[in-house]
Amino acid sequence: MKKILLVIALGISALFTEANAQKQIVFEGVTLPRTINFENKTLQLNGAGSRSKMWMEVYIQALYLSQLSQNPKEIINDNQEMSIRIEITSALVSSGKLTRAIHAGFEKSAGADFNALKPKMELLKGFLADDIKRGDVFELSYNSKDSSVWVTKNGELKGKVPGFDFKKVFFGIWLGDNPVDEELKNSLLGI
Q: Which of 19, 62, 92, 148 is deepest in the core (most CB within 10 A)?
């Protein structure tokens, strides 16, 4: 009888483990959900990669889309919900370092349009100004209903940056023709 109960318990445990494995993926020690919900839409994990500075991994980033895609131009120009998820993996990351890195990538992505979009970049930097510690998770999600990028930290909404023009340049930081990291771009695209 004990053996039968043990086999049943192991079988049930295996089913739950398999179900959880299908809902999550572990990437370089960070557990990523295969889907996230944003404004009543289910976004799917398109790809994930790590960002390193000076041979040190600083964060794991994942791209979530309404429909999976390997076409960066389509993703940038798509007016559908999507999200960038960043999990901080180094205690050396501060809000100042993160905002400077995003600012530099944004300036590179915007090119000649940077000055027109600079006030929106400053707004974003304000939403990222809180202290940052290892394990913090940022979701920067585009909402097509109000054409804005929603900034959340550890599940708490910090604010919204308006404009489809901002969204295109923002996602271009990692997916544009001149991304901050070509290897990370390919990882986010699942290539």
A: 62
